[in-house]
Amino acid sequence: MTKNASPVRQSTVNLLAAWLVGGVVFIAAPFGRAADDDPSNEYRTDVDLQHPIMGNLTGDLDLGYRWNPDLEYQTYTILWPGLTYKATAWAQVSSGLRTFYKDSENSPDTLELRPYAGVKLFLPNDLKWNIYNNTRYEFRDTLNLTTHNWSGHSVVRSQFGVEVPLTSRERAWLPKTWYGRVDAEPFYRFDQEMVDQLRAEIALGHIVNDRLRVELVYTAQFTRTFSGSPWGFTENIISLNFKIGLKEGLLRRLLNPNQGD
Prior knowledge:
It is a single chain. The protein has two helices and eleven strands, in the order H-E-E-E-E-E-E-E-E-E-E-E-H. With 261 residues, it is mainly β. It has a single domain (5-259), classed as Porin (Beta Barrel). It starts with a helix and ends in a 6-residue tail after the last helix.
């Protein structure tokens, strides 16, 4: 490691801290928590398996579990099939089907089918940061398992984020290093013609080796019931995620496309 690695690392840490604090305050301030807000707490874990298919086409299998003790429900999720195509070094196209089974104590159980398609764009830079926008369309079709009635609506969600390596630039995105992320994601619901949900997120990730990354994520969720109504702080979401690549170098090429192989 070069002699200036430590100052570079400290500078990166300080800059990330400013991004995290400033970003979250900027995002959350307009939504101000009302006195009667009583957010629930949801806990999540996901195992995301990335596997090569052919050329720039990658497959994705994701298994997840969600538990909210305050609202007394559990949700089991699976993403399959999931596909990502790396069109260029700065653009990826994805599509897939995510399925949710919600087991609730106080309301009917539901089964939700959520097909989606989206584009993720990266901003090339010399800092080895991941600056990106991930926008996707989802159709959410939900079956009430008590009444056996289906209901559906369309959503566009657009995530604006930045990931910063917590190490020297020379070691960015290499095994046994850390990184941080801050992002914001509004949700536009077509049947109500409004943005009804917004999430602000911070995350700390560790690159264990070339095939495994682990992330601890905190997400603050804000919602509103109709256009013009005040925003409410409705949920804290804490997630532990495991990202696994089934081929050497796959995660780095997929998650850090501007950094080279």
